[in-house]
Design a protein that fits this description.
single chain, about 650 residues, alpha/beta, eight-stranded mixed β-sheet, eight-stranded parallel β-barrel, 27 helices, 16 strands, about 50% helix, elongated, PDH_C, transferase
Length: about 650
């Protein structure tokens, strides 16, 4: 189904996001009298195509009018004149009687359904739109008898897709009730805001005394006058009645205060406390989540293509910036130099740094987000930071961070990941998940599943290597087979390699970066600093922006073979994976033979024979059983073990026959 949205702000934009994500709409076409709103809506994926009213009427199967209520009637009449006979039109404004009267004489009246999804925030514009705004809320359909039965049914299906409960009501009744429960609360907030602003002219210190009660009461005063002035005008009769009742209560309070009637004041407050029954019911309803069957291994996680949330991306994606934000000058200069290279797509900086031991530098904190925001404004580039808890998420969103990532130490803790997922409910910001410290693929997948369960579809993984035992040339062993297996299970998941943390030194960065690209990784996360050797954290693994650009230029993007055998990216990727496994097998076999030589030395020192027949039979029997479970044939296992056994004998013989010095 092709859905048209007229008005791409908070309500229309949020509806578009969920209808597309949840499969109700195949495509969203948007129209808006503000060209900038259309540009933003398209750039952030709210709509897939922009048009005008004529185009919307011609192309769409269902149209949603989500504009201020004063212009909605004219738009509806325009659309009803143009649409096909089977097109359905809805409006979602918060006054219904006026709009129903405006279209009641139109020949296509039955194609229109008057709706009011009761949800929203004080924010406006397409940037305010987000997923799950309507989940577990109530939608009202008014004067359904005047609409075609199939049109009403389709409207109910739409709001069901938005996870809303629908009730039916007459338009006049709706407007009277909504005047008390919505319109009056906004007027109260506007009036309080005006009162305080007037006092503030004489008493600057009043804001030093303002607490959370004031903030929550006056929050609605930030609502758009473009939206609310027409609403109050259209519903003037019912709003006026609500104000009369409200003013009566205010005057009663004033009288008891003026006359010092403490008992009467107490009684009024005590009676007002009964509103808690309603508030508790609303809170309980908002907290209740429908039962969702736990995902099985066969369930497919919805993943938005990276091209949708990073339009115009030229592979490979490169995310770069300092390991830690240290000073404003350091962040700004590093980011500006990175932007100047033309090789970096996203700027990063560590704001909070989880350290293995206390008393080390643990990040500059929230002030660093202000520096990163300035870098974003100066360069026009997107930004990314690591978050480890709810507070980090809220602070990052407050400062306009574009991409979040979850670090290895956080991924290992399902409670922490769930806290982050809960904080992101309804906000489909891109989130990248680093592999856990230890080689646990299920923990990695579990973190991705938790974020998916919170409605995040812009997901990606970061491979930063795994904790090692013993000395190797890497800070964190790559263990390529694990990200390869993750990619096999989730083919659509973007995979980013973090060579900086795999290597722990700048000398190996190019090698690991090339290896990742050979395995068809989506991109790289590399740490860069204007003066790496003076960095406050992880100095050895950072490079200057200039060196980073040189390294990126030296990488080879492989799309296939250069000889006569033509292969597509999929086959090449599979072959690269096989090559990688073979390389790792040879490395493991070499390490095995080193242990074998130690065994040979032990046997030599203790005058034991090389061949221990009972041991060899036990190995064969155990390996046959294990191989069968792993899908390997008995014939292959026998040939493989015989070859390995013979090589082991050769190594032990060389040790045992080595002449004494």
């Amino acid at each position: 189904m092709i859905v048209g949205i007229v008005g791409t702000g908070l309500i229309g934009g949020s509806m578009a996001l969920d209808l597309k994500q949840r499969g109700f709409a195949n495509k969203i076409i948007g129209a808006d009298n503000n060209p900038e709103h259309l540009r933003i809506a398209k750039s952030i994926g709210i709509i897939q195509e922009e048009s005008n009213l004529a185009g919307i009427a011609e192309k769409c199967d269902l149209i949603i009018v989500a504009t201020p209520v004063d212009v909605a009637p004219g738009i509806l009449l325009n659309l009803l004149d143009r649409v096909k006979d089977d097109t359905i039109i809805l409006d979602v404004g918060s006054t219904k009687e006026h709009i129903c009267k405006a279209v009641e004489e139109h020949s296509r009246r039955k194609q229109f359904v008057a709706c009011h999804p009761i949800a929203g925030t004080e924010n406006t514009g397409p940037e305010a739109a987000h997923n799950k705004l309507f989940d577990n809320k109530v939608n009202i359909i008014c004067n359904a008898a005047e609409s075609d039965e199939n049109a009403v049914k389709k409207a109910e299906e739409l709001f069901s897709a938005l996870k809303m409960d629908t009730v039916h009501m007459e338009a006049r009744e709706h407007d009277r009730h909504i005047a008390f429960v919505s319109h009056l609360s906004h007027i109260t907030s506007f009036a309080l805001g005006l009162t305080v602003l007037k006092i503030e002219k004489d008493e600057k210190s009043i804001f030093n005394l303002a607490g959370s009660g004031f903030a929550s009461t006056v929050r609605l005063a930030k609502s758009s006058p473009d939206m609310w002035a027409p609403i109050l005008g259209q519903n003037a009769r019912h709003v006026s009645a609500a104000l009369d009742a409200y003013i009566e209560q205010l005057l009663l309070f004033k009288e008891t205060v003026d006359e010092g009637l403490v008992t009467e004041t107490y009684d009024m407050i005590s009676t007002a406390n009964q509103i808690s029954r309603i508030l508790d019911g609303i809170e309980l309803k908002n907290r209740q989540k429908p039962f969702v069957k736990p995902a099985s291994k066969d369930d497919k996680i919805e993943i938005t293509p990276i091209s949708d949330w990073l339009p115009g991306l030229q592979r490979p994606l490169v995310i770069s910036g300092p390991c830690s934000a240290e000073t404003e000058a350091q962040v700004m200069e590093t980011c500006q130099q990175l932007a100047a290279t033309g090789k970096v797509d996203v700027l990063r900086a560590g704001i909070w740094k989880p350290r293995t031991r206390p008393n080390n530098f643990e990040g500059i904190g929230t002030i660093g987000l202000e520096w990163l925001k300035k870098a974003k404004e100066a360069t026009g580039m997107k930004t990314a930071v690591e978050v480890a808890n709810k507070q980090h998420v809220e602070e990052a969103l407050k400062y306009g961070v574009d991409i979040l990532w979850i670090g290895a130490r956080t991924t290992v803790n399902p409670f922490s990941v769930q806290e982050i997922a809960d904080a992101l409910q309804g906000i489909d910001i891109p989130v990248l998940v680093k592999n856990p410290i230890n080689a646990d693929l299920e923990l990695w997948i579990g973190a991705i599943e938790r974020l998916s369960g919170a409605g995040i579809t812009k997901l990606g993984a970061i491979h930063r290597g795994f904790a090692k035992y013993g000395e190797t040339k890497y800070r964190n062993a790559p263990q390529w087979q694990l990200p390869i297996e993750l990619k096999r299970r989730m083919p659509e998941l973007p995979m980013i390699c973090d060579p900086s943390h795999i290597c722990g030194n700048r000398e190996l960065l190019a090698e690991i970066s090339q290896q990742a690209l050979d395995l068809n990784y989506t991109g790289l996360m590399l740490e860069s600093h204007i003066n790496p050797d003076k960095a406050w954290s992880d100095a050895k693994q950072q490079v200057t922006p200039e060196r980073l650009a040189e390294m990126i230029d030296g990488l080879v993007l492989r799309n296939g073979y250069s000889d006569k055998v033509i292969t597509d990216d999929t086959l090449q990727e599979l072959r690269n994976q096989v090559d990688q496994f073979d390389s790792e097998l040879l490395t493991i076999l070499s390490q095995r033979m080193q242990v074998v030589e130690n065994i040979g030395q032990y046997k030599k020192d203790n005058r034991l024979t090389i061949l221990q027949a009972s041991r060899w039979n036990d190995v064969l029997d155990k390996s046959f059983k294990q191989g069968e479970k792993l899908g390997l044939s008995r014939d292959f296992i026998e040939k493989y073990l015989k070859a390995v056994h013979q090589e082991s004998i050769n190594h032990q013989s060389a040790v045992m026959n080595e002449p004494k010095v």
